[in-house]
Amino acid sequence: MARLGTPRVGQGWDIHRLVDGRRLVLGGIEIPFERGLLGHSDGDVVLHAVTDALLGALAAGDIGQHFPDTDPRFRGADSAVLLAEIVALTGTRGGRVGNVDVTILAERPKLAPFMAPMRTRLAALLHVDESCVGIKGKTMEGIGAIGAGDAIAALAVALVEPGPRPRRVRAAPPR
Ligand code: MG
User: Fold this and answer.
1) How far apart are CA 156 and CA 104, in angstroms?
2) Residue 171 pLDDT
3) Strands 8-20 and 95-105
4) How much distance in Å is there from the Cα of 64 to the middle of ligand 1?
5) How far is the CA of 69 from the centre of ligand 1 (A)?
6) Contact 165, 96 (CB under 8 A)
7) How far is the CA of 2 from the centre of ligand 1 (A)?
8) Across the strands, what pairs with 13?
9) Which fold has domain 8-162?
């Protein structure tokens, strides 16, 4: 596999259904809410979108190819572990994360209080400074399934730069 010679950009997006009886995990942190995201893994749309953005930058397929939802090993998987694997793959390809920018589409819960811890967690997972992680929250103004509170989606872009992985900037906080 060719090593990265130039900076590369990638995009990712994901959507999961909100259902009763699941915990809500977004951006690698647990958010108190009466519903959670349905999925084979923990359903963390933010980490899935970021993972796909990195894979896009590497032109290395998608999250479903790397972690098939037919594989029992990934049932209930911590999406942070999956992302960490793709961050490691980025290093193997001679790259490191430059920056990421994420937009979360959710009607509820209000995400503002959770933006800072999500950013801290993402920065730790990506081995970048928090200044390299953007996260924005948007509602759908009541439109469609997301607007009705039946799903949450996330969009991400990532820049991958050639070069050695920088020294880890901070340890991931406990979940
Ligand atoms: Mg997903």
Assistant:
1) 9
2) 52
3) unpaired
4) 8
5) 10
6) yes
7) 28
8) 155
9) 60s Ribosomal Protein L30; Chain: A; (3.30.1330)
- The residue to which tokens 């901070």 are assigned: 170
Per-residue pLDDT band at 172 (split at 50, 70, 90): low
Ligand 1 centroid to residue 43 C-alpha, Å:
6
User: What distance in angstroms lies between residue 59's CA and the mean position of ligand 1's atoms?
Assistant: 19
User: Domain limits of the chain?
Assistant: 8-162
Q: Which of 40, 8, 3 is nearest to 22 (CA)?
A: 40
User: Mind listing the pLDDT tens digit for each residue in 100-134?
Assistant: 999 999 999 999 999 999 999 999 999 999 999 99
Structure tokens at 99: 């920056």
Whether the pLDDT of residue 167 is over 70: the answer is no
- Structure tokens given for 171: 């340890």
Q: What are phi and psi of 26, to 5 degrees?
A: -140, 130
- CA–centroid distance, residue 175 to ligand 1 (Å): 19
Whole-prediction pTM? 0.93
Q: Look at residue 73 in the predicted model and tell me its pLDDT.
A: 85
Mean pLDDT of all residues belonging to the chain: 93
